[in-house]
Design a protein that fits this description.
alpha/beta, Rossmann fold, 4-stranded antiparallel beta sheet, 2 domains
Length: about 300
């Protein structure tokens, strides 16, 4: 089978929304090539991610690569992707150069092209994310293994916004808590929640591909009975009282359901938000405070922000 690699030259700010656009259009596998990664020294406690080749990275901005099946509808799909990416400007998102290139590869090259980027990564004090094809031996008895197929939907566990979310869950989630995951993507935060002691997770995503991916990845971790994945627009029509609500999506989208998050939280419950670029930090803080939330903690990683708020 032939595949086409679509490469978008954009900014770090636009990584999450463009990645979501790509997986909504059926992209299989996703690679982020950020030149800042070439300068990082990965701390041993978080593990080595992968070997990097400087020649594959842009001088500025980032490359987002994804893989689409070559078919008669390919050009139409690429045109729709370009239009959706360009429309991100109306949300105040800097998409940078926004140059798009397309190249054809065969299935074997496709598998090698994106799988080489994913290795076991310790994303928090307790949780290590491993791709399904990797063999891994835990370094200690209390290490929690989260198995994931990154090709199913956006959310590999290694992006700063996901790592911030998992680290917040590890700190604030209590045993037997009920969790709602808004914008579940690949299901990585839902699975992490159960591994950390949640009794049950309700995972919602508007995209049916994400719902299927959450279900499949929950099955890979033998947690399908404790993770309920459903297609839903944010928290519309949801009447569940949760101890923790976690959401790793765009700040503009988070701002739309702050009131619903308040209504769906138990007293004293936590609202963990991520996917927030530095310039949107004040916007989210103000939205949360206006609703009555108490800002408990703000964390930052590579210009991405996570805000933990409590229903006081």
């Amino acid at each position: 089978m032939k595949w086409s690699e679509i490469r978008i030259h954009t900014t770090n700010e636009a990584v999450e929304p463009i990645s979501n656009i790509l997986h909504e259009k059926g992209a299989a596998g996703l690679v982020i090539e950020d030149p800042l990664d070439l300068e990082k020294e990965h701390e041993t406690r978080f593990g080595e991610v992968y070997e990097l080749n400087p020649q594959e990275y842009p001088d500025e901005g980032v490359y987002i690569k994804a893989y689409l099946p070559a078919s008669e509808f390919l050009q139409e799909t690429v045109t729709e992707i370009k239009e959706k990416v360009s429309s991100l400007r109306q949300y105040g998102i800097d998409i940078g150069k926004n140059t798009v290139t397309l190249s054809e590869i065969d299935e074997e090259e496709w598998a090698t092209a994106w799988k080489k980027y994913y290795k076991p990564v310790k994303v928090s004090g307790k949780i290590t994310v491993i791709p399904t094809w990797e063999d891994y031996t835990p370094s200690s008895n209390d290490e929690l293994i989260l198995e994931l197929d990154p090709g199913m939907a956006f959310g590999t566990g290694t992006h700063p916004t996901t790592m911030l979310s998992i680290q917040a869950l590890e700190q604030y989630l209590q045993k037997d808590d009920l969790v709602i995951d808004v914008g579940s993507g690949s299901g990585v935060l839902s699975i992490a929640s159960v591994l950390l002691g949640a009794s049950k997770v309700y995972a919602y995503d508007l995209d049916d591909v994400a719902v299927k991916s959450t279900t499949l990845n929950a099955g890979l971790n033998k947690l399908e009975s404790r993770i309920i994945a459903k297609q839903n627009n944010l928290l519309e029509g949801v009447n569940i009282k949760a101890d923790v609500i976690v959401s790793n999506i765009l700040a503009e989208i988070i701002g739309k359901f702050v009131a619903d998050a308040w209504n769906n939280l138990t007293d004293g419950g936590y609202f963990i938000t991520s996917g927030i670029i530095s310039s949107k930090k004040q916007y989210i803080e103000e939205k949360l405070k206006q609703q009555g939330f108490k800002i408990v903690e703000i964390n930052e990683m590579d210009d991405w922000i996570s805000v933990i708020a409590q229903k006081a």
